[in-house]
UniProtKB/TrEMBL annotation:
<dbReference type="GO" id="GO:0016887">
    <property type="term" value="F:ATP hydrolysis activity"/>
</dbReference>
<dbReference type="InterPro" id="IPR027417">
    <property type="entry name" value="P-loop_NTPase"/>
</dbReference>
<dbReference type="InterPro" id="IPR001482">
    <property type="entry name" value="T2SS/T4SS_dom"/>
</dbReference>
<comment type="similarity">
    <text>Belongs to the GSP E family.</text>
</comment>
<dbReference type="GO" id="GO:0005886">
    <property type="term" value="C:plasma membrane"/>
</dbReference>
<dbReference type="Pfam" id="PF00437">
    <property type="entry name" value="T2SSE"/>
</dbReference>
<protein>
    <submittedName>
        <fullName>Type II secretory ATPase GspE/PulE/Tfp pilus assembly ATPase PilB-like protein</fullName>
    </submittedName>
</protein>
<feature type="domain" description="Bacterial type II secretion system protein E">
    <location>
        <begin position="325"/>
        <end position="339"/>
    </location>
</feature>
<keyword id="KW-0547">Nucleotide-binding</keyword>
<dbReference type="GO" id="GO:0005524">
    <property type="term" value="F:ATP binding"/>
</dbReference>
<keyword id="KW-0067">ATP-binding</keyword>
Amino acid sequence: MSISVLTEFAASAGSGEPPQARNTRGAYPLSDVGAWAASAEERKLLCLLDDGRLLIAEGHEMSPYVLSYRARLERLKFTYRAYAVGFDEVRRAYEGMRRDGTAERLDHTAMQVLAKELIAQACRERASDIHIRVKRFSTEILFRIHNELVRVSEQTREHGARLLATLYSAMASVSDNTYKPSERQDASIGERDKLPEQLFGVRIATAPTSIGNVMVLRLLYNDAGETTELERLGFSTLQTHQIDELKRLPHGMNIISGPTGSGKSTTLQRVLLGQINECNGSTHVITVEDPVEYPIAGAVQTPVINASTEEARSLAFAAAIANAMRLDPDTIMIGEVRDSASAQSALRASMTGHQVWTTVHANGALAIVDRLIDLGLPLRMVTDESVVTGLISQRLVKLLCPQCSPRFADSAAARDTALAARVRLAVGPAFEQVRAQGDGCPHCAGRGTIGRTVVAEVVRTDAHYFECVRNGDKAAAIEYWLDRLGGQTIVEHTQSKVAAGLVDPRMAERVVGPLATCTQSARLRAAPVGSGYAH
């Protein structure tokens, strides 16, 4: 392990060898017992060895426990050299030695303060998720910012275990009574006094791992519904008009697909807010969610109980949809269709004269049909244009900072000849306008990106389109959608944003795949490109 020197005092009792040449296991830890013993909390962060080295957990050099112990050594005129090392190095220095098992414990109240500050810090960074990974000897905390994980800090294993227990048992408002590290559990935090004002709620998922536990917190921001304009999310003008047409239909199921974290819930929220506003509140919108994610002013939002098993959750979800149908709705929003019971209930609601909006995990708009069939729905029903009226697939790609993004042609990325060739084929004459991610500047907080934008494909189904699907001729269905219905694939939508200098081609390909192949021509549209939103 590479060890960096923090401070070096005058000569100490030691061999004089460089620290890298000495084996930690061969040195006696003076801070374990005896005259130089450290407290239980101090021992988690430091270890004083008999060769004069003071090992300090990296990132905790300014901890009050470390500062206090160092002040004590200096007051007693003990000569030492301080080094920043990993938590594992500190732990290994104590291996084989007897330790005092009494440790000062942070109670739930003190740990809640730390948990709230962690969430507030994530909000300031505009993180979408917080990952807390409790490992064998330490805890790692990461934020997902603009879809990339950023390491924030490392803590002790005990700190992480108590943080997870506090977040689940003392802060969550919908959960089992007790945090169970050996089980998979879901919960949410929704009480206003436990959250920063920027957040509407926090969704929690936990799971045991081979060496500890992991908890992921999804942050749900209040500003997700600041506007109902879909173009602000990144949808093209044509796609926005198509979705507006779907909103005006009296019945039918409209399904949004995409992976976790692709902005499906935000799109649903803005669609329903737009519908409510356009009808001046005269339409009755009911949602069935597990749990409620974003506030939708004017809608009746109903949560599904936190069931203990997947089977119980499936039954509860289906029962909630059936109950919603008895509450005289005009529009029903179902948070997610993920099993046969919820899929059948959603289809039944669409067939009985309701407009239904929901989400599903599928790889593309056309793949939604395959997913519904996989969930047990009959082909003839999911290919009925009066029952399934709209298929939408979306992803999120990062928006470039306009202040520091260089021209792609001038960037190091352009030296990848295969990538450059694909970009030329995809954007044609617009190649000189393509830009790449920069090194960062004050405008983008040093990241090179300023948020994310939707890339999507929207299918307004009709009889001929579904006839091709029923006949198993997907190629004919796609050709008809592109040429006769004015469709635009998700790759083509991405191409238009790359051509406009909004998205780095490398980032785009990580999300949607190759921008072009040798047998594929670029079908760029002249429609205005949506700007996107920070997330």
